[in-house]
TrEMBL record, chains A, B:
The keyword Oxidoreductase applies. This is Antibiotic biosynthesis monooxygenase. It comes from Cyclobacterium plantarum. The keyword Nucleus does not apply. InterPro entries: ABM_dom (IPR007138), Dimeric_a/b-barrel (IPR011008). SUPFAM superfamilies: Dimeric alpha+beta barrel.
Length: 102, 102
């Protein structure tokens, strides 16, 4: 299978978590149409209420990297940056061996 | 949406990572048919070669919990336990807000 999974987390300045989540949900609609996108979901964690979590699965890391250039995605990144409480942490990258649902 | 995402990790005793991954891939075939299972994928991380990673999405946490009782799954858990290098760590639970691909 050898697909690419990325677990990311973005932490918002206090009071901006909902706005950040809304931007990422918009981004998910755009990247859903990008080549090689299998999953792009946005989550939250009651234990960490300022953060928004992103779990992505792509056919390859190259497809993921290319998605950052999709029209509209750069604009959404620009909107999200001022809401962040510091630079984004590097995500956790996994190589998928197989499974169900994608 | 309010689906349930679980990121889990199991660490094998040295030399048993492949066997552990094979058991989890078998488990994925069983749980794929369980009620509410949307995603169940098995991954690895080159930086952590003794571990196997599991990312699951379910319609609800209750559906996830119920899946541990699926016929065959308990047997696979029993096969996996002796391969583990210590008890499984608690996974990261997220509440999904939305996104694409499920």
């Amino acid at each position: 299978m050898n697909k690419y999974l990325l677990n990311g987390k973005l932490t918002a300045k206090p009071g901006h978590q909902e706005a950040l989540a809304a931007i990422l949900l918009q981004a998910s609609e755009l990247v859903a149409t990008a080549k090689g996108c299998r999953l792009y979901v946005i989550g939250q964690n009651p234990d960490d209420p300022h953060s928004v979590y992103i779990t992505e699965i792509w056919d390859s890391k190259a497809d993921h990297d290319q998605s950052l250039k999709v029209e509209g995605v750069r604009e959404l990144i620009s909107q999200a940056m001022p809401l962040l409480d510091g630079p984004p942490a590097k995500g956790q990258e996994l190589e998928l061996l197989g499974g169900a649902g994608i």
